[in-house]
Specification:
globular, eight-stranded mixed sheet, alpha+beta, 34 strands
């Protein structure tokens, strides 16, 4: 007993000396500076002082990535101040050069370096200081730009960001999701923009928080979009593999859609995706011959190859930058805005959108709903379809019968936007039909598929289906279960701690209108109560009505109105999801006795 009391007293004293905190650490000071020299050299200066609170985990090492062919790293100082005041400098063997994770397996980028700084003397209550400078040669990145997030996953007591460039260069900037104005200073031919902030709260990591929902700043000295992707207009030599593919396509007299399908399958999807970004590779791409020989390519290299092939196939195209809508700003242009590049190919059916950076994904005969695309040559915003429910819809209409524990009949499918796959249509109309209808209920067989209409971003098909959604029959009862609502799950709204807007891929609507034939020998025992919800988040409407003899008419509608669901709209979204996914039976049929 005496030993237990002693252990309790020791634990209490340790807790008193080192009280538990909400975070493992906090930035006492964070100082970042971007500088553009008159000769075009770009300098990045970094300094932080971090105090360790609960644990040393995650802060015992610092990682700095760079390209030694164009960049030079200078570690100015790295030391730890221990609790007793002793200062411990990082020893020579505490600096180790390794290959960045994203460059693994890619021999063409084996020269990249990640400097790992292993801090010494770390303990609870210690303070770590690190100061370094990264110097980038002129031309590696063809213009001066930067993007910095103000929040970290731990609090920041004092934050300073400085952007410095020669007078006359001009700087465009915008602060997103935050209120912060710079102090502007001029002198000796230099203009400085200084952003200061104290006591920045931690940015809790959350599965639903996108980077563009966090507070950040974007700046650039670029005055036109024409140089967003400068290499795209340069002449690149192709290689025999590319030439043979282009020649083969031209000889076959294919449609534009079929040409693009081959481009995707034989070039874009064949090249493994190398995740080395422009910050490490710059716009300095390898030769086309080396890219094809290696079997992999960066996003930048894939864009260049796609451009060459499209031009050689005489397919009129425009390269566009994909922007989150809230990053649009007059005279602010930077590749750091981009969440990807899209080629817009002219077609008599409407623009075809080709994403050369994502292997295996479909290109669609529809606009990217609600997502702005900027033509990098003209700088103009392409007209985009409003992101509403109708732009992304799947509608099922038809007549089906319940018989022998199966759900069979003829269903007409109308699909557009997110539910419409053009490359899937080219591969197999049967598979496309079965896959799309299968989003609503499990389909075991499809046959007699007919295409009624195909336009830009829209298809209408009809077919005979059979579905086996489990054991419906139980003793003397037959159950018709609820339909599935694709892409919606209860975990979307199950967390009460969400502080940020929830972003859905697209607004959409799903409609089901079926006439269900009840089998002979059964009568209606229960029909689910009709329901209708129309609120700020979306719409849910459901009804079952008795039709002619042995017929039931089922109508269901579920849709989300907005891509970004604000915190105040979560209760409305939860109400929709709970109703749509409650799992109740739609109809329960009771088997009649033979004497009846």
């Amino acid at each position: 007993m005496k030993k237990i009391i002693i252990l309790v007293l020791i634990f209490a004293s340790v807790t008193y000396l080192y009280p538990l905190h909400s975070f493992n650490a906090r930035y006492l000071e964070l100082d970042i500076k971007y500088t553009l020299e008159k000769d075009g050299t770009q300098i990045f200066d970094y300094f932080h002082r971090v105090k360790l609170l609960n644990s040393t985990r995650g802060y015992g090492e610092s990682f700095i990535k760079y390209n030694p062919d164009f960049q030079r790293l200078e570690i100015i100082s790295s030391e730890t101040t221990m609790v007793d005041g002793r200062k411990v400098k990082t020893p020579d063997n505490g600096y180790n050069k390794v290959l960045p994770h994203e460059a693994r397996r890619f021999a063409g980028f084996s020269g990249l370096i990640e400097m790992v700084v292993s801090h010494t003397g770390i303990e609870r209550g210690a303070e770590i200081e690190l100061r370094y400078r990264l110097i980038t040669k002129k031309g590696f990145i063809p213009y001066f730009t930067g993007k910095e997030f103000f929040t970290k996953n731990v609090p920041v007591d004092k934050y300073t960001l400085t952007v410095e460039l020669p007078e006359g260069e001009g700087l465009s900037y915008k602060v997103f999701n935050y209120s912060m104005k710079p102090e502007k200073k001029s002198g000796d031919g230099i203009v400085s923009y200084i952003f200061r902030k104290k006591n920045i709260a931690a940015d809790w990591k959350n599965a639903y928080v996108k980077n563009y929902d966090r507070p950040y700043i974007l700046f650039s000295n670029l005055k036109t979009t024409g140089k967003l992707f400068p290499e795209i207009t340069s002449k690149n030599n192709t290689c025999k593999v590319i030439e043979d593919i282009i020649s083969g396509i031209k000889k076959r007299g294919l449609s534009k859609g079929e040409m693009l399908k081959i481009l995707k399958e034989k070039i874009i999807d064949t090249l493994e995706d190398c995740h080395v970004g422009l910050k490490l590779s710059g716009f300095k791409t390898r030769s086309i011959k080396n890219i094809i020989r290696s079997g992999y390519a960066t996003s930048c290299e894939k864009v260049i190859i796609t451009k060459i092939v499209l031009d050689r196939l005489d397919l009129r195209n425009r390269l566009t930058l994909v922007l989150p809508g809230f990053e649009l700003s007059d005279n602010l242009f930077s590749y750091l805005q981009s969440s990807g590049w899209i080629f817009v190919v002219d077609s008599y059916e409407g623009d075809i959108y080709v994403n050369s950076c994502k292997p295996g994904t479909d290109f669609r005969l529809t606009e990217y709903c609600g997502i702005p695309l900027v033509d990098i040559v003209t700088g103009k915003l392409l007209p985009a379809r409003k992101c509403d429910m109708k732009a992304n819809s799947v509608i099922l209409k038809g007549k089906v019968s319940l018989k022998d524990n199966k759900f069979s009949g003829n269903i007409r499918l109308l699909a557009s936007g997110s539910f419409y796959s053009y490359s899937g249509f080219l591969k197999s109309k049967d598979k496309l039909y079965k896959k799309t209808v299968g989003k609503i209920f499990p389909v075991s067989k499809v046959k007699n598929i007919k295409i009624l209409r195909v336009t830009s971003g829209f298809t209408e098909m009809t077919g005979d289906v059979e579905a086996e959604p489990g054991k419906w029959e139980y003793k003397s009862y037959l159950f018709l279960k609820s339909f599935k609502i694709p892409v919606i799950t209860k975990n979307l709204v199950s967390r009460d701690s969400i502080l940020y807007p929830l972003t859905i891929g697209n607004s959409f609507i799903i409609r089901i209108s079926l006439s269900v034939v009840i089998p002979d020998g059964y009568s209606i025992d229960m029909i689910r109560k009709n329901e209708k919800i129309d609120n700020s988040a979306g719409i849910y409407e459901y009804s079952v009505k008795e039709g002619k003899k042995n017929h039931m008419n089922i109508d269901l509608k579920f849709g989300l109105k907005e891509r970004k669901i604000s915190r105040k709209d979560y209760p409305a979204l939860k109400k929709l999801v709970d109703s749509a996914l409650d799992g109740d039976f739609l109809i329960i049929l009771k088997k009649l006795n033979k004497q009846n």
